[in-house]
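Bench log, entry 3. Co-assembly request; chain sequences pasted below exactly as received.
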Amino acid sequence: MHDAAPVALTIAGSDPSGGAGLQADLKTFHTLGVYGSSVVTLLTAQNTQGVQDIQMVPADFVRSQWTSVSSDLPLAAIKTGALGNAEMIETVADCLDAASCPVVIDPVMISKHGHAIIDDDAVDKLIERLLPLANLVTPNSFEAERLVDHKVRTKEDLLKVAAKLLALGPSAVLVKAHLGDQSIDCVADSSGVQLLRSPRLKSNRTHGSGCVLSAAITAGLAKGDDLHHAIQTARTF
Ligand code: PXL
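Structure output for the full assembly:
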């Protein structure tokens, strides 16, 4: 199939329940007509109740997977998801230094213990190594707050956080926030800042929605869409 469809790669963790992680990414790529490939960074044991256990894949083996895939498939866009710790972030950054296609960094903050946080070393490494090579970084407001150490309570905070993130080196940022009863995404790049508003969806079934959004953007980039078009299409999806 990869002779015909553009090829996207996700470098991410496994969610065996299929709602998030590389499984959500691959389903999204497939639905949007892009051939999906994956490099696995960590394995979770999880279900709709939460994350019960996590195993890191050895960094050397992540490097082996990258070499196998990138030396063979014509990668048109790459995204990263859960990376777990500083060593994994360093390994993935070493791989992506050689990439020649658009890279979307979803700075998922899930730790090796399954907590919804990663340690300070991992955050520092993300800032130092991954953000500068990103064409787009897609944090939710909690991840953005952690990356730039500034709370998101108002629209002004959101604009400030997006500007601070952009100053860390990515070509563009998409910060996903909930303010009151609205979902507001802030998109910023060198051409300016845009606020994209939509009514907040009243659903508990949002597990994996961040993965799906960043995967859909990656699929658009793999098809050759420009970034703003890829973001619009992905938000609708
Ligand atoms: O949705 C963030 C996410 C990404 N990747 C993996 C996850 C989660 C959230 O639980 O488990 C593997």
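The mean pLDDT is 94. The pocket of PXL is lined by residues 12-13, 15, 20-21, 44, 46, 51, 81-82, 108, 110, 208, 210-211 (CB under 6 Å).
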